[in-house]
Automatic annotation (TrEMBL), chains A, B:
SUPFAM superfamilies: 2Fe-2S ferredoxin-like. The lineage of its organism: Bacteria, Pseudomonadati, Pseudomonadota, Alphaproteobacteria, Rhodospirillales. Residues 647-672 are annotated as: Disordered. This is ASKHA domain-containing protein. Residues 5-109 form the 2Fe-2S ferredoxin-type domain. CDD domains: fer2. It comes from the Bacteria. It holds the Pfam family Raco_middle. InterPro entries: 2Fe-2S_ferredoxin-like_sf (IPR036010), 2Fe-2S_ferredoxin-type (IPR001041), Beta-grasp_dom_sf (IPR012675), Corrinoid_activation_enz (IPR052911), Raco-like_middle (IPR041414), Raco-like_middle_sf (IPR042259), RACo_C (IPR027980), RACo_linker (IPR040506).
Length: 672, 672
């Protein structure tokens, strides 16, 4: 009898002694080393590749060589010739131990690999999908031992994969017999949560997919993901067709109130669009709809209810009662979505009547519940969702900011498209502006700007542009602390000009004339004050005076320059280096829930703990709102901000001189 | 502080001491006494009625009086005036303990009441339905403590009924908000298996229903049951519309083989008919479809697969592989059945490719797995399902008897309708017959027979009539042991007459002439031999020479005179007193599964243990079949039968005299 070989696996560091002849995969499994496999050790899937370390590894006290492993087998030859294999790689299910080995399991061979995210400040997504593929060989039927095809499939899954007592969905059952025979009793099965067989394919099936959906009031975004690698293989968006029933949520709820049965129409159209979107990403990803096994959804409460076919009318008025705030797990067919016959849908939990599954997605993506620091997350849209707290306490509310941030109700507002002003700087001495438009990299005062923009011109200001315009107008002294455009400057510059009782600031004089009016400034003031008041309410409830970091989520939050967001007082004072865009955090949350089963339990637990604040019934909300109308704020200090920009002297009143502010105190802010 | 009162509950005998002022229902619950309640102690449902024993009960060492209980309350007055209450009854949720009491819980107030069945030899059905109703008061939504309506309903169910972590189905969720508001936050909820909310009604809902379905190849029978009392409140039947695709199972499977996609048509038509049948029983029971929460199904494997939308083609040829043999639990909507929106379907497990959920139903109804005695159960139809065994071992098989027992392939055969001969006696001396027909209580030789049958005449022989005709012909010596009609008797009686190479027996000479031909006898011989051979195979496998009792199930089994079944050798010899009709045992099994949740687990476990015998691959089946062609059998003794009827001397061969029988032995049977 030969001596056992000593095997060390990296990066896990797990080690053990094994008899010569043991397959490397078996050794790894017995030590609990994380190595993937779909084919169950048959040399088909190539998921279990490993690499042998060569040399004397002092650290591990081992001398390792590929000579201590059986030679490249015919099964490996076949796999390598079909699919290709990197130099030095082996299939751990085929290679047998013949002596001491240091074996490296590369990241792509691990089941629980991590998806690296672009931002360094957020946690990585660990791949651990609820749905996994298993290749299985099924015993053929035998008249002498009658049993159902399902029962023999179950027996195979138990013997070959240790999966016990699996249930099988009806629509999969309906196709089971022909698939088993077509695959000649070798099939690949998709199993959800180690409990349910939700799909079966003849032979070996390599890939399974899921779609994460951010169901917004205006836009629906879908991301097709490879359930094994976590890779986003296709993304697409579509307008929410419910827009024809009302631009914002409340007008859609009103539509239902005025048109009984209207909720059914809205449910039907959004499901139809989702089904189209599924087709689009499937085509882009070059896969079949039947390869899509799972979908996850985030969305605000009204979108959430309408998707589910629930009348949202109760969300339209106090006490804003949700039908449910738990998560939901359904068949995709229950929502008329055509993916795999028994494909599943998971919808993240809502938090409160105005704080939906989109906010749950943001929390899951940003993970404030893991932090020591106090994190403020604002998902800015027609409605702003605000989350504040850390691992000890989390609070959430929503605040009705209105559509100003999305460019609506702004005189020269337009959607983000070529020709829209997105960046602007105003000379504080001359009050002359220069700007950049979407579709051109040059500033308006640079040579070639006119030439490069001649195809689309300069047509308006987009949402992020209006924030900068008002921020720069404030920094240049054109807008006073109280938001009034200082008419006295009309004498100094033709850019400030009278418009009856108030004044406008002219950014571009050529047609179309682009101006910022007093009404525009007021609309932005109201919107930013609503957001800030919500934030203040949560800070007060949490008992903090400052926040440690701020994440701006959502399409709008991703595009604005956080500095200007702070200059106009959209967000509270904070170290600017700690203020970041979180991108489409809600959508990322949906993707995490798609790829990691534990994250579902995690977010269900977290939202249960979130303290919900209803701004509409908080008496102090109004006071916070009024105080937040000032630039950047009527009463609050912006110490960090004052350290990076030169804030103008505080001035209010039509006179344009310094006046009393709402809080009755005077301050000066200077750059440090 | 007053002394505790001593309370004894009957019939349970549970006893305990309780403080004065305790509601009787609370006392009962704390002792685990089985008392029903839907309203949760609000005096609405009247389910918790009890009766106080008056007097000195030595046996229980207690002096009890209704004076030891609070007086009839206004809540009880209201209930009694609305719904009526028997003299002496009290609502145990309203009556408070004031002293020692002997309290009787009548059967109808118990949750686990038993349904008494007509036959004394079978176990009673214990009512313990998977679905129960719970009246619950739900907290109203509060903006200051945002939570979903579902979560508050769940909280109410936990606080008021101890039901934790209930899930709620989508279609119930869709109606939850308007129902809670219509009911003014008081609703009745249907909960399945203490796990899932499957229906909600505003206010108090008293009754919930289920339907047990026996899905036969020819007939579909549905029984509407009150889920609380177990009472069958309506029954109806409908022809299986699949008949137009083929009379028997194999011709339907052939239809699918010849017409790809034909299985979809057959699935659609049977589901449509089931949906019509649901409407019929709902109307007969004067209830809404939405009051039906559950359906259970039994059926043979082909019916089972077609109901589920599974192609039955694999059942049409060896190795006769079922898609699955486990039970199935589904939404009724998955089978296109319109009952309550989230109503459920439970389909009993199949056993083998030819032994279906109908046989599982028969086992559940007859309970051979509880017996010490060896029970033989035969469900006779176009295919016979046979179960043999006791609590130690159970074996099952099916045997292709063909349609002869159903009157098909019989020259004068007809379905059971007025004018069909169902009883017949033949004088062994004169060979003259007398008979009775369906629709008339007189025998044909009694006065008034012609008058009473003149509207429909004498038109043919039904399935049970043909068994008696052949049995009587054998007892009268007209048919020999080998099944040959003895032509030598033509000399003795004009009733026996030549038909070329063989002879007929004439039962009725007026038009239409009703005869039993040699071909008819052969058809019955083949059918009964197939059944008997299956039985013998199981007896051999079980290692028994005799059976202790026989149950004949199915429509045919219920109508035949068991004596004649034994005379022709359809079933093996047995004490005739222990041979009984089990009626529609399969349908009863479906009813048990509807009303008792434990029975589902029970039958799932039992079918798993059943040893399946495939007659088609058993080499000895053919031998048993050949030997079983004789009357009553070529080789087997019929000792018990010989004790009650005078069996004719054994004779074979065209000569009509005694000849060699198949087994080569001679015997004489005499009445004892």
């Amino acid at each position: 009898m030969s001596k056992d070989a000593h095997i060390v696996f990296t990066p896990s560091g797990r080690r053990g002694d094994f008899p010569v002849g043991t397959p490397v995969l078996s050794a790894a499994r017995s030590l609990g080393v994380d190595i993937d496999s779909v084919c169950g050790g048959r040399g088909i899937c190539g998921r279990c590749q490993i690499q042998v370390g060569e040399g004397d590894f002092q650290k591990h006290k081992i001398v390792s060589s590929c000579n201590n492993m059986t030679a490249f087998s015919s099964v490996e030859e076949r796999y390598a010739s079909k699919k290709g294999m990197k130099e030095g790689r082996r299939l751990s299910c085929q290679a047998l131990i013949e002596g001491d080995l240091l074996i490296d399991v590369p990241a792509e061979s691990q089941v629980h690999k991590q998806v690296v995210r672009k931002r360094a400040d957020v946690r990585e997504i660990e791949i651990d999908p609820p749905i996994r593929l298993h290749y299985v060989v099924v015993e053929e039927p035998d008249m002498h031992k009658p049993s159902g095809d399902l029962e023999r499939l179950q027996a195979g899954l138990e013997a070959q994969w240790g999966l016990k007592n699996l249930h099988c969905d009806l629509r999969t059952l309906q196709t089971l017999q022909p698939i088993l025979r077509k695959g000649q009793w070798q099939v690949t099965v998709a199993v959800e949560n180690e409990k349910t067989i939700i799909a079966v394919w003849p032979g070996f099936k390599e890939k399974a997919y899921g779609i994460a959906v951010d169901l917004g009031s205006t836009t629906i975004a879908a991301h097709l993901c490879d359930l094994q690698t976590g890779e986003v293989t296709a993304s697409s968006g579509i307008m929410n067709p419910q827009i024809r029933f009302g631009e914002d949520l409340m007008s859609r709820v009103s539509y239902v109130m005025m048109n009984p049965g209207g909720e059914k129409e809205m449910t039907a159209v959004v499901r139809e669009s989702l089904d189209i979107l599924i087709g689009v990403v499937a085509e882009e990803g070059k896969i079949e709809r039947s390869d899509i096994l799972s979908m996850t959804f985030v969305g605000n409460p009204v979108m959430h209810h309408l998707l589910l076919g629930i009348d949202p009318v109760e969300l339209g008025g106090a006490p804003f009662a949700l039908t449910l705030n738990s998560s939901i797990h359904l068949y995709a067919s229950e929502l008329d979505l055509n993916i795999s016959r028994d494909g599943r849908v998971y919808i993240l939990p809502c938090i409160a009547g105005h704080v939906g599954a989109d906010t749950a997605g943001v929390i899951l993506s940003e993970g404030p519940h893991f932090q020591d620091e106090i994190t403020l997350i604002c998902d800015v849209g027609t409605n702003a969702e605000i989350v504040l707290g850390n691992k000890h306490r989390l609070l959430a509310c929503s605040s009705p900011t209105g559509p100003a941030f999305e460019g609506a109700q702004i005189s020269s507002g337009q959607r983000a498209a070529p020709g829209a002003i997105e960046r602007i700087r105003i000379d504080p001495v001359t009050l002359e502006p220069r700007y950049r438009v979407i579709g051109c990299d040059l500033w308006s005062d640079e040579e070639g700007f006119a030439e490069q923009t001649k195809d689309f011109g300069v047509t308006g200001i987009c949402g992020s542009g209006i924030i900068e315009a008002i921020g720069e107008m404030f920094l240049a002294g054109i807008i006073q602390t109280d938001g009034i455009i200082d008419g006295s400057l009309a004498e100094k510059s033709p850019r400030v000009r009278s418009a009856g009782k108030t004044f406008d600031y002219v950014i571009s004089e050529s047609e179309p004339v682009i101006t910022v009016t007093q009404t525009d400034v007021r609309a932005i003031q109201l919107a930013k004050a609503a957001l800030y008041a919500g934030v203040k309410l949560l800070m007060e409830k949490l008992g903090v005076e400052t926040v440690d970091r701020i994440q701006l989520a959502g399409a709008f939050g991703s595009h604005i320059d956080v500095k200007y967001a702070m200059v106009i007082g959209l967000i509270p004072d904070c170290d600017l280096a700690r203020v970041q865009s979180a991108g489409n955090a809600a959508g990322t949350g949906a993707r995490i829930a798609l790829l990691n089963k534990k994250s579902r339990k995690e977010i269900e637990d977290v939202v249960h703990r979130v303290e919900k604040i209803e701004t509409a019934v908080e008496p102090k909300f109004q006071e916070h709102f009024v105080n937040a109308m000032g630039m950047p704020h009527t009463t609050d200090e912006f110490v960090h901000l004052a350290g990076v920009v030169t804030l103008p002297p505080k001035k209010t009143g039509k006179s344009g001189g310094d006046g009393e502010d709402g809080g009755g105190r005077r301050r000066r802010r200077r750059a440090s």
